[in-house]
């Protein structure tokens, strides 16, 4: 379509117009392509593990997306998977799109993209491989569709990096064993196995996922309420406030409304990211208004206090030993910094995990969205603080190269590849389309 439009521009014969529109069109399509990648990166940074662009040729249904997300998040692995439209290539390859996505997300982990009908995946760690798993998943499940391929890929990565058996690939249930007694017994056994067991696991799984959502909701409600108490009584029409302060107070109130609405819309634990991200914005605006009103220097955009993100933006990195963890530098608010300097232990934010109260950074992977909304936009600057924590392993998958702790202290993914770069990427074409230029190793549906 772009080519056709460019052609009509040629036919118009207006040379200057043609040159102008060619630039505009190229710019427009590149912008759209990078918009798709940026939107995916934003969602993935915010705690979603699998993202599907609605305009993608192989876009996932929301049910499939939910189940893949639940599966991926349960692995605790840093999985980043995006299903994108073919236009995201913007003249490049699917590998280019995957690389751009990795760059935009900026975290180490296992990346997979489906661009148009091409599936490509691999890890950012040259010492680890997932490309062959992508190829295997594709080979085993391509006949069952994209959701089956991605689900198989996630199961295989879980097996390789966590040691959880992936089980056999799904196969077509073969019939023909009826008519004999053995066949009948086999049928009954199958009935028991294929209906009884899955029902048991489905019910158990549903209970567990309901419990996980309820736990995250409780934490979210507490955080929204705490911010609500903070902004209660603020008045943007107060003539004593400077105009800029009034605007910042308004932005804080807007962020509060946004957080409240997003909390009400929450349908899965990952949705918590939108809430905590809005709360982080709100507390920052409030800190700005406060600084302006009291003639203090404007605050820097820094991560929320690590001890309890409800304390608002941190003011410094402070050396501290979180309960149960080795000492490290963590971002802290002024009050917590004072506590630590005086030898007192600041009160840490605890959340429910399977009924127990634990520091939020040690809670299960269903808190990935909760922590992600607060901290993922601060990128690798947070990875040092989160070394050895559950939150760190689901958000970053281990320490970054800039950390002062040696690599072997974490089982997660290391830094970006050094000279070798990128590792071994596999996957295969989903085939179809008009591309006849290559025909290597079966990949067509
Ligand atoms: Zn604090």
How would you characterize this protein structure?
The chain has 12 helices and 8 strands. The longest helix is centred in the middle third of the chain and has 51 residues, at 181-231. The protein has 445 residues and is α/β, with parallel strands linked by helices. α7 (181-231) packs antiparallel against α8 (243-265) and α9 packs parallel to α11 (368-375). A hairpin with a 2-residue loop joins β7 (350-353) and β8. The chain has a 4-stranded mixed sheet. A two-stranded antiparallel ribbon has the order 5-6. A two-stranded antiparallel sheet has the order 7-8. It folds into 2 domains: 2-162, Diaminopimelate Epimerase, Chain A, domain 1 (Roll), CATH 3.10.310.50; 209-397, no CATH class. The site of zinc ion has 9 residues, from α10.
Index terms:
Diaminopimelate Epimerase, Chain A, domain 1; 2 domains; 12 helices; four-stranded mixed sheet; disordered C terminus; disordered N terminus; 445 residues; globular; alpha/beta; two-stranded antiparallel sheet; binds zinc ion
Number of strands: 8
The secondary structure category is: alpha/beta
The poorly predicted ranges are 1-27, 172-177, 398-445
- Average pLDDT confidence is 79
Apparent shape: globular
Concise overview:
This protein is of the alpha/beta class and 445 residues long. It contains 12 helices and 8 strands.
Chain-wise SSE layout:
Elements: H1 2-12, H2 15-45, E1 50-52, H3 62-74, E2 79-84, H4 94-105, E3 110-115, E4 118-123, H5 131-141, H6 146-162, H7 181-231, H8 243-265, H9 272-293, E5 316-320, E6 328-332, H10 334-341, E7 350-353, E8 356-359, H11 368-375, H12 390-395
Parallel strand pairs: 1-2, 2-3
Antiparallel strand pairs: 3-4, 5-6, 7-8
Helix pairs in contact: 1-2, 2-4, 3-6, 5-6, 7-8, 7-9, 8-9, 9-11
Residues 305, 307-308, 311, 332-333, 335-336, 346 line the site of zinc ion.
């Amino acid at each position: 379509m772009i080519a056709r439009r460019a052609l009509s521009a040629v036919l118009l014969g207006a040379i200057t117009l043609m040159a102008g529109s060619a630039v505009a069109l190229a710019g427009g399509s590149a912008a759209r392509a990078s918009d798709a990648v940026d939107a995916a990166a934003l969602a993935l940074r915010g705690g979603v593990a699998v993202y599907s662009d609605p305009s993608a040729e192989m876009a996932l249904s929301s049910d499939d997306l939910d189940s893949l997300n639940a599966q991926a998040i349960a692995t605790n692995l840093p999985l980043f998977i995006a299903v994108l439209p073919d236009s995201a290539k913007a003249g490049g390859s699917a590998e280019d799109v995957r690389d751009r996505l990795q760059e935009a997300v900026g975290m180490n982990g296992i990346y997979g993209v489906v661009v148009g009908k091409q599936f490509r995946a691999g890890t950012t760690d040259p010492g680890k491989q997932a490309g062959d798993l992508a190829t295997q998943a594709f080979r085993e499940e391509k006949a069952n569709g994209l959701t089956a391929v991605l689900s198989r890929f996630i199961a295989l990565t879980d097996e390789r990096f966590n040691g959880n058996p992936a089980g056999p690939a799904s196969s077509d249930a073969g019939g023909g064993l009826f008519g004999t007694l053995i066949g009948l017994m086999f049928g009954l056994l199958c009935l028991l196995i294929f209906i009884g067991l899955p029902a048991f696991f489905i019910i158990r799984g549903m209970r567990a996922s309901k419990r996980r959502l309820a736990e995250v909701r409780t934490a979210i409600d507490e955080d929204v309420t705490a911010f609500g108490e903070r902004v209660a009584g603020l008045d943007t029409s107060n003539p004593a406030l400077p105009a800029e302060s009034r605007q910042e107070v308004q932005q804080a109130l807007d962020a509060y409304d946004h957080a409240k609405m997003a909390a009400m819309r929450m349908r899965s634990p990952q949705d918590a990211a939108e809430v905590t991200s809005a709360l982080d914005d709100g507390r920052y605006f409030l800190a700005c208004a406060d600084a302006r009103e009291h003639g203090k220097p404007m605050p820097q955009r820094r991560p929320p206090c690590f001890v309890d993100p409800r304390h608002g933006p941190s003011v410094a990195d402070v050396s501290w030993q979180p309960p149960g963890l080795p000492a490290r530098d963590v971002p802290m608010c002024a009050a917590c910094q004072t506590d630590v300097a005086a030898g007192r232990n600041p009160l840490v934010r605890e959340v429910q995990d399977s009924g127990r109260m634990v520091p939020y950074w040690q809670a299960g992977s269903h808190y990935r969205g909760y922590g992600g909304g607060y901290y993922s936009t601060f990128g690798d600057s947070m990875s040092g603080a989160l070394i050895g924590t559950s939150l760190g392993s689901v958000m970053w998958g281990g320490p970054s190269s800039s950390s002062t702790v040696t690599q072997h202290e974490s089982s997660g993914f290391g830094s970006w590849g050094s000279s070798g770069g990128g590792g071994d990427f596999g996957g295969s074409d989903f085939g179809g389309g008009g591309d006849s230029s290559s025909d290597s190793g079966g990949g067509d549906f």
